[in-house]
């Protein structure tokens, strides 16, 4: 495949390494210095684009790629208030779009564990749920997209909780998420159910960016030649 990398920071470089190892070509790299190269002429020969940028630029980047009829794999977080517009435009264009808050296979298994545990704990009102997430100091959004996904899964399955907050709270209906930014942590997510009798805890800790990069390339391989809206559940067959 000929891949366009939109965003060439540490994550983009990790994706490049995995993509080349898997036999693909990085035909275009877009960063702050050459944003104007994100146009239909430069994108004409691209099979799939992988977009990892910032909350402020992701929406415009995705729209440009879909306009050019390029399938898009997006891992940027912090912009999901506009995702409905992206989905609608993708379908209008008969394009292909795959978003994930986290592309790691391990994290997506963790998502499934989180949903199942929340379902089991739905009516165990003696337990209080709290979340913690740790990332490196360059992480621009807090809580992380992964933490938001985990929190939304808990809200969908435990009736007590009505919303999440990114600070300590004593309100029964609020799900607490505590965010820390510590170098060089790639990412840790912890969910704890606590009662006076015991604690139940699940944790995912990333050791490096390889898992995220591998999952993103797998998603690009999956998306080539398809049309529609997809997620990592589709890639992994969950």
Quick summary:
The chain has 238 residues and is of the alpha/beta class.
State the order of secondary-structure elements, H for helix, E for strand: EHEHEHEHEHEHEEEEHEH
What percentage of amino acids are in beta strands?
Answer: 15-25%
The global form is: elongated
The count of β-strands is 11
* Mean of residue pLDDT values: 95
Could you name the CATH class of the largest domain? Alpha Beta
Radius of gyration: 19 Å
Helical amount among residues, as a percent range? 25-40%
Q: How many helices?
A: 8
Taking strands numbered 1, 2, ... along the chain, how are they ordered across the largest sheet? 2-1-3-4-5-11
First-to-last CA distance: 25 Å
Provide the CATH topology of the largest domain.
Rossmann fold
Question: What does this molecule look like?
Answer:
It is built from eight helices and eleven strands. With 238 residues, it is α/β, with parallel strands linked by helices. The chain has two domains: 129 residues, Rossmann fold (3-Layer(aba) Sandwich); 101 residues, Dihydrodipicolinate Reductase, domain 2. Helix 3 packs parallel to helix 4. The longest helix has 16 residues. The mean pLDDT is 95.
